[in-house]
Amino acid sequence: MSYRFDFGAVLDRAPELLWASLGTLGLALAGMLLALVIGILGVVARTSKSEIARTPVIVFVEVVRNTPFLVQIFFIYFALPLMGIRLNPTVTAIMALGINGGAYAIEIIRGGVESVSRGQIEAGFALGLHKADVFRLIVLKPALRAIYPSLTSQFIMLTLTTSVCTSIAAYELTSAAQRIESDTFRSFEVYFMVTAIYLVISTMMMGLFALISRHYFNYPTR
Amino acid sequence: MGPIGEDELFFLMQGLKWTVLLAIVGFIGGGIFGILIALLRTSKKKVTRTITAGYIGIFQGTPLLMQLFVVYYGVALLGVEVNAWIAVAIAFTLHASAFLGEIWRGSIEAVPKGQTEAANALGLHYGSRMKDVILPQALKISLPATIGFLVQLIKGTSLAALVGFIELTRVGQIISNQTYRPLLVFGIVGAIYFIICWPLSHVGSGLEKRMAKAAR
């Protein structure tokens, strides 16, 4: 059998793919920010002394981490209108990404905060540092350094997960691919090229994260 | 709005059957190829290391949904008449082989160097050294991450719904469209996934904690 590949039909739609790539990046960036906010707030509640604050966070984390993102996004997509909230699909997708990423961020950040040893904090006070300085120099930076690898690889996962947002027709790369597919019938070519674009995006993000890490966390631990 | 009755629940169980089958096939197929990938990735030859690193990088750097689409339409181009089930199973097998290969590479490298040296000193050849000395220890080290990936894989099978494969999530979509009760239906579907995944996650993190304590 001889199938003739026709990437030209897809290349004609390059501008559309470019814009959709920006859509994917925007979705990913907004999702990361929301995930970070949920992560920080969640850790504050998760490490608090009151059980009423801790329990909902534990339940939230377990539920989100043990159900598929696709089911979550459908649930949110249908739940919001019932609560009288009308959002466009892209904003709904950002909420779903943020909620999903937030659950993972809570666990990652909690691990980092707990990794700072009590003795270091006491040593900081013994040296006469202010509370703010102890937090900034002794707690925050080492904790950031400890969570950085897990958090950034989680961010890359989140970026790849944005492709699932095509299921509610959010503006991003995969939905553009499906649009081009239905126009050109060049299924394999479209998805092959879009997969390559995702690979470029995730590789660039990895490079950027590594660069930031080398710049900010480049100091000896011992 | 329609009711969610016995018929709907039966239909959901049918979907669940395909979800579980798909996860099992992906995990076993991915496991077999994954060991191969892990061994090639840790071999002495630079060529095989580079190729397998590229293979892993591609699967870890692209969305699972795109991998499904590319394999689904790619298999069709090969001219062989295959049904959706086979195409999707191939996609999950390839996906799982890359992730399990990377997890197991890490655990093979985590086995102390002295073990390899001792096996060499005893005159064991490569096959025996791997099978009898390194891999059993690596398997133990990899257990928490392997179970963690199994949970990822089970959740990932839901994406097969987007290529039209009838499994749990797709059944949920169909019932939701028929009954106009999306929250109830996706609530039930989510609960079913949770019942399967949560115990696994629990076992995985329990093992991880135990091993961390033992290492201290």
UniProtKB/TrEMBL annotation, chain A:
Q: Which PROSITE patterns match?
A: ABC_TM1 (PS50928)
Quote one Gene Ontology molecular function term. transmembrane transporter activity
Q: Which of UniProt's keywords are assigned here? A: Cell membrane, Membrane, Transmembrane, Transmembrane helix, Transport
Q: Where is the ABC transmembrane type-1 domain?
A: 21-209
Q: Which GO terms describe its cellular component?
A: ATP-binding cassette (ABC) transporter complex
Sorted alphabetically, which InterPro entries does this protein's record hold? AA_ABC_transptr_permease_3TM (IPR010065), ArtM/GltK/GlnP/TcyL/YhdX-like (IPR043429), MetI-like (IPR000515), MetI-like_sf (IPR035906)
Q: Look up the domain of life of the source.
A: Bacteria
Entries under Gene3D superfamilies matching the protein: MetI-like
Q: What is its main location?
A: membrane
Q: How does it sit in the membrane?
A: Multi-pass membrane protein
Where located? Cell inner membrane; Cell membrane
Pfam families noted in UniProt: BPD_transp_1
What biological processes does GO assign it? amino acid transport
> Where does the sequence pass through the membrane?
20-45, 57-79, 146-170, 190-212
Q: Which NCBIfam families match?
A: HEQRo_perm_3TM
Q: Which family does it belong to?
A: Belongs to the binding-protein-dependent transport system permease family. HisMQ subfamily.
Name by which UniProt lists this protein: ABC transporter permease
> Per the UniProt entry, what species is this protein from, by scientific name?
Sinorhizobium saheli
TrEMBL record, chain B:
The UniProt record lists the ABC transmembrane type-1 domain at: 16-204
Gene Ontology, cellular component aspect: ATP-binding cassette (ABC) transporter complex
> Keyword set for this entry?
Cell membrane, Membrane, Transmembrane, Transmembrane helix, Transport
Gene3D superfamilies associated with the record: MetI-like
Note the coiled coil stretches, chain numbering.
none
UniProt-listed SUPFAM superfamilies = MetI-like
Residue ranges crossing the lipid bilayer per the database entry: 20-40, 52-76, 82-104, 183-201
Topological type in the membrane? Multi-pass membrane protein
Instruction: Report the PROSITE patterns cross-referenced here.
Output: ABC_TM1
InterPro entries for the chain: AA_ABC_transptr_permease_3TM, ArtM/GltK/GlnP/TcyL/YhdX-like, MetI-like, MetI-like_sf
Q: Does this entry carry the keyword Aminoacyl-tRNA synthetase?
A: no
GO BP, sorted A to Z: amino acid transport
Annotated compartments:
Cell inner membrane; Cell membrane
GO MF, any single term: transmembrane transporter activity
What family does this chain come from, according to its entry?
A: Belongs to the binding-protein-dependent transport system permease family. HisMQ subfamily.
**NCBIfam families xrefs:** HEQRo_perm_3TM
Q: Which PANTHER family match?
A: BLR6398 PROTEIN, MEMBRANE COMPONENT OF AMINO ACID ABC TRANSPORTER
Name used for this protein in its record: Amino acid ABC transporter permease
